[in-house]
């Protein structure tokens, strides 16, 4: 099969099955909502501290949501005995990775885009002209999180302590994404000029590139077993 | 298998590595703690450096061995090299902990705090987390070959991540406030350099010795498991 067709069909399959049962997206969405609510209780946010804390809260919410969603990414394949099909299908293994990865990026972005208006509402943000920049940061950070998350999901899906191991492996390695995303978001919301935080966006893009290449290369070895 | 033969040959002399490490560390400790002069700025506190710096170096060396061994394993599928990587990770945790704890003890009188969010401290702590994650992942996998492969994948991704973590943390600190602690450009006095060098070499040798012993232990454990499995199958069949 053609490389890009494999990516397209796997992402399409994930999207279709998700649209039919809405299991992942709804659990991700409600989980993130709860995280936001708990933060607003625990910090008793006033307008002044909101600006200081908000970028961190956004990315903790999205990071934990990612753990819920990305961790389950390969679960359906295991439950339906599809891992074996992935092993024998005459398609490049890297394309299978990129297909699952694209599906994950899509789900996380959908959840983030649904949640973002709620952030604006809850935290009284003034964002209208900042939306393109925010979207760019969301996309860049989501790609990095999903690149690592898809790899570790495949790595942990077949072991006993999957729910524990997935965040233990993902979160330490995702530290640069969280730093970059939080700092860039803070830059946008405090109205800094682009030159002040553009380095963080660059870091995110570089990180995305490195981890997509490495994961693409090592994914083949995971499917071998 | 070049590497297996090299490991086997080194293992023949493993006792000598232990003896040499012990001697060097004893001499280095004596020189460092007794004959070397206290630091101009830090006074006697500086002596913890003779443990702290070699431990940190050995920890990073352990991670490099783990990385190299992992790539080699994915390439050649040599189980002895996997044993070595597995051993290196465990010893790496040990040296990383020593480096973090001694660093913390040194920081209390010097910076007046046990912990500060310095790039090196953060990246070292994350290295510890990655190593522990690696060891945990391995304990949860039953199939030996799968264990080795998944571990190798994790180690490679983690090793590539470390410099990125270090630089992102460094930027994160420096963009917002000037570094409160910067490395002083003062060159080190020779009566401090010699014990430090002795301790460094001693710790590297100690690491090699521990690596050899632990690799052999893991090999024997695996052998025992295989034999036990064979015996069980004989009983049941």
Summarize the structure.
The complex is a heterodimer of chains A (225) and B (237). With 225 residues, chain A is mainly alpha-helical.
SSE inventory with pairings:
The complex is a heterodimer of chains A (225) and B (237).
Chain A: H1 3-21, H2 23-43, H3 47-71, H4 75-79, H5 83-88, H6 93-123, H7 131-156, H8 162-173, H9 175-189, H10 194-223
Helix pairs in contact in A: 1-6, 2-3, 2-6, 3-6, 3-7, 3-9, 6-7, 6-10, 7-8, 7-9, 7-10, 9-10
Chain B: H1 2-12, H2 14-35, H3 49-76, H4 79-111, H5 119-139, H6 144-174, H7 190-236
Helix pairs in contact in B: 2-7, 3-4, 3-6, 3-7, 4-5, 4-6, 4-7, 5-6
Radius of gyration of chain B (Å) = 21 Å
**What's the helix-strand series of chain B?**
HHHHHHH
Report how far the terminal alpha carbons of chain A are from each other: 22 Å
Helix share bin of chain A? over 70%
Q: How many strands in all of chain A?
A: 0
| CA-atom Rg of chain A in angstroms | 18 Å
Which of globular, elongated, flat, extended, rod-shaped describes the shape of chain A?
globular
| Total count of helical runs of at least 4 residues of chain A | 10
Report the mean per-residue pLDDT of chain A as an integer. 87
What is the number of domains of chain B? 1
Biggest beta sheet attributes of chain A:
none
**Share of residues in helices of chain B:** over 70%
Organism (chain B): Candidatus Manganitrophus noduliformans
Keywords (chain B): Cytochrome c-type biogenesis, Membrane, Transmembrane, Transmembrane helix
Family (chain B): Belongs to the CcmC/CycZ/HelC family.
GO molecular function, one term (chain B): heme binding
Describe what this molecule looks like in 3D.
The complex is a heterodimer of chains A (225) and B (237). Chain A has 225 residues and is mostly helical. Chain A has one domain (3-224). Chain A is 84% helix and 0% strand. The two termini of chain A are 22 Å apart. In chain A, 44% of the residues are buried. The mean pLDDT of chain A is 87. Chain B is globular. Chain B has one domain (15-236). In chain B, helix 3 (49-76) packs across helix 7 and helix 4 runs parallel beside helix 6 (144-174). The interface between A and B is medium-sized, with 31 and 30 residues.
């Amino acid at each position: 099969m053609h490389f890009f067709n494999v990516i397209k069909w796997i992402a399409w399959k994930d999207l279709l099955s998700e649209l039919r049962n809405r299991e992942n997206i709804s659990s991700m969405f409600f989980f993130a909502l709860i995280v936001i609510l708990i933060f607003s209780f625990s910090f008793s946010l006033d307008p002044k501290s909101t600006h200081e804390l908000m970028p961190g809260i956004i990315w903790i919410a999205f990071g934990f949501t990612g753990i819920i969603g990305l961790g389950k990414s390969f679960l359906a394949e295991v439950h339906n005995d599809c891992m074996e099909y992935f092993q024998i299908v005459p398609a490049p293994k890297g394309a299978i990775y990129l297909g699952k990865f694209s599906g994950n990026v899509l789900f996380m972005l959908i959840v983030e885009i649904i949640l973002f208006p709620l952030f604006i509402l809850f935290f009284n943000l003034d964002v209208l002209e900042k939306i393109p920049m925010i979207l760019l940061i969301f996309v860049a950070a989501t790609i990095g999180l999903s690149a690592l998350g898809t790899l570790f999901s495949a790595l942990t899906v077949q072991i006993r302590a999957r729910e524990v191991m997935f965040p233990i492996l993902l979160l330490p390695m995702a530290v640069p994404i969280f730093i970059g995303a939080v700092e860039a978001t803070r830059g946008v919301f405090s109205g800094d000029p682009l030159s002040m935080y553009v380095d963080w966006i660059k870091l995110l893009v570089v990180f995305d590139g490195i981890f997509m290449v490495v994961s693409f290369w090592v994914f083949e070895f995971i499917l071998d077993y | 298998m070049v590497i297996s033969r090299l490991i086997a040959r080194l293992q023949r002399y493993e006792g000598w590595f232990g003896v040499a490490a012990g001697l060097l560390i004893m001499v280095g400790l004596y020189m460092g703690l007794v004959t070397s002069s206290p630091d101009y700025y830090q006074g006697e506190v500086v002596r913890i450096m003779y443990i702290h710096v070699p431990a940190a170096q050995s920890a990073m060396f352990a991670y490099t061995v783990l990385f190299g061994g992992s790539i080699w394993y994915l390439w050649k599928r040599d189980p002895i090299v996997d044993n070595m990587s597995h051993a290196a990770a465990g010893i790496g945790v040990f040296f990383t902990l020593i480096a973090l704890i001694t660093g913390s003890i040194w920081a209390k009188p010097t910076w007046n705090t046990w912990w500060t969010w310095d790039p090196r401290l953060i990246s070292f702590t994350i290295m510890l987390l990655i190593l522990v994650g690696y060891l945990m992942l391995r304990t949860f996998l039953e199939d030996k070959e799968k264990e080795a492969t998944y571990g190798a994948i994790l180690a490679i991704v983690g090793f590539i991540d470390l410099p990125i973590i270090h630089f992102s943390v460094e930027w994160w600190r420096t963009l917002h406030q000037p570094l409160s602690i910067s490395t002083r450009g003062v060159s080190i006095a020779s009566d401090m350099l010699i014990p430090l060098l002795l301790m460094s070499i001693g710790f590297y040798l100690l690491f090699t010795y521990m690596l050899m012993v632990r690799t052999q232990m893991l090999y024997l454990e695996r052998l025992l498991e295989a034999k036990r499995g064979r015996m069980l199958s004989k009983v049941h069949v």
